[in-house]
Amino acid sequence: MADMTRERIGGLLARQGILIAFVAFMIVFALANPRFIAVDNILGVVRSTAILGVIALGVTFVVIGGNLDLSVGSMMSFSTIVVLDLHDKIGPALAIPAMFALTLGLGAFIGFLVGYLKLNSLIVTLGMLSAIHGLTLTWSGGKNMDIADKEGTWFSVFGQGSVLGLPVPILIFALLAVVLSLLLSRTPFGRKVYAVGGNGTAAVFSGIPRARVVFLTYLVSSGCVAVAGLLQASRSLGSQNTVGQGLELEVLAAVILGGASLLGGSGTVFKTVIGVLILGFIQNGLLLMGLAFYVQYVVTWVIIVLAVWLDVAAKRGRLLSPIA
């Protein structure tokens, strides 16, 4: 009986451990600083995590499809710099679609390499991380970008505007989450993504075009990166050319925290949103407790390790390996 109870508790912790830890973090932060649960602080956290969240929504498709995308950080830097540069040259009405086209082109190239040429996604996207960073520096001439007329442009509405008291970035994040959740859970394409990530060989023998599905997941990911670049550029109307550097690790942490398996075939958009909020509120709580911002990096690393451990534990039904 005792062994059975321990196995049940271990299984519960393996499946829901990160949510239990999140609730514990929230209680500790609220007790440490009552401002943590203030409405303005909550809206501020969600707004600040909207860019990370938008990227994570797209990466969810890639991970469920059984692949990785480590290029999203440098790709966001590229999209942000491009739209800011083109804003003053051709105007925002043309700069936005041009940036989307270029960013989708990068995603299509990665999707072709991973999907049709069947190259390892880790190697491809790690290489593209450096390549896109170099492309960004080449485009900007190594300089940061700023919009000349910051007061007379409607471009700022995406990052600074609000509707009915809610910041536009939050509304865009929420709307995109709803659309992509329906795409993943209620369409044939979504079912094919799960099938390819769960067992690619079986999916091919079932008549599912694996290469095309993988290709499209990277298009979805790059499209979300383009939206994030738009939000970033619009929020500050200027940017460093390394604004997305290191963001890929936070995105991956959020996706894994949401329950998406690194082995592919499992995960949901809704749970990814929860993972994004977990990271955002933990980082905010650490700052309100007076800890230095660089402590967040250590905490993020611990969360990634914990999430991977719980992911593996959920697969085998216990926290520790039976061999240990």
Can you walk through the features of this model?
The model has no long low-confidence stretch (mean pLDDT 86). The longest helix has 31 residues, at 2-32. The radius of gyration is 20 Å and the shape is globular. The protein is mostly helical. The two termini are 22 Å apart. Helix content is 74%, strand content 2%. It has a two-stranded antiparallel sheet. α3 (72-90) runs antiparallel to α4 and α3 packs across α10. It has a domain at 50-245. A hairpin with a 2-residue loop joins β2 and β3 (166-167).
Task: Summarize it.
With 324 residues, this protein is mostly helical. It contains 13 helices and four strands. The radius of gyration is 20 Å and the shape is globular.
Compute the average pLDDT. Answer: 86
Along the chain, the helix and strand elements come as: HHHHHEHEEHHHHEHHH
Number of helices: 13
The amount of beta strand, in percent, is: under 5%
Most strands sheet = 2 strands, antiparallel
- Radius of gyration, CA atoms, in whole angstroms: 20 Å
> Strand pairing plus helix content: what structural class?
mainly alpha
- Measured between the Cα atoms of the first and last residue, the distance is 22 Å
What is the topological layout?
Elements: H1 2-32, H2 39-64, H3 72-90, H4 92-116, H5 121-140, E1 145-146, H6 157-160, E2 162-163, E3 166-167, H7 168-186, H8 188-198, H9 200-205, H10 210-236, E4 238-239, H11 247-257, H12 269-288, H13 295-316
Antiparallel strand pairs: 1-4, 2-3
Helix pairs in contact: 1-12, 1-13, 2-7, 2-8, 2-10, 2-11, 2-12, 3-4, 3-5, 3-10, 4-10, 7-8, 8-10, 11-12, 11-13, 12-13
